[in-house]
Design goal:
By secondary structure, the chain is mainly alpha-helical. It is 80% helix and 0% strand. The protein is built from 5 helices and no strands. The longest helix has 30 residues. It starts with a helix and ends with a helix.
Length: 131
């Protein structure tokens, strides 16, 4: 995998742990579910990438997703340490089945060639600050 795609994997993995939050009053279960839903959406977007044109469309969706996750991160930063631990535990349980699919899609997209990789490199920047 090229360095940019490898870095995006790292950023997304960090995002999974630190942005699992939602609106006030949510339970650890609902917060983890919200993040799980975001991860499924991320995988679905990656599945749509077949060439440079579909990578361009995916880039817009992933950048928008990053903006939403930044908003979630601000809310998770306000949680207590105990709440964060509960969310993290639930998140690990819920994401385990999805992670293989996520990694497979990341490798598949990386194998589509330099044009596709170049098109998605800027997505990495959009996800910075979420770790």
């Amino acid at each position: 995998m090229r360095n940019g795609m490898r870095a995006l994997v790292g950023v997304m993995m960090g995002t999974l742990v630190f942005t699992a939050a939602g609106c006030g009053g949510d339970t650890p279960e609902s917060l983890a579910q919200e993040q799980t839903t975001a991860m499924k959406q991320f995988v679905d977007i990656l599945k749509s990438v077949k060439d440079k044109d579909t990578a361009t469309a995916a880039k817009a969706k992933l950048t928008s997703m990053a903006d939403s996750l930044k908003s979630l991160k601000k809310r998770v930063d306000a949680l207590t340490d105990e709440q964060k631990k509960e969310v993290h535990k639930k998140l690990e349980e819920q994401l385990q089945p999805i992670m293989g699919e996520f990694m497979g899609e990341m490798f598949r997209v990386a194998s589509l060639g330099p044009e596709v990789q170049k098109e998605l490199e800027s997505v990495q920047t959009a996800f910075e600050g979420l770790q």
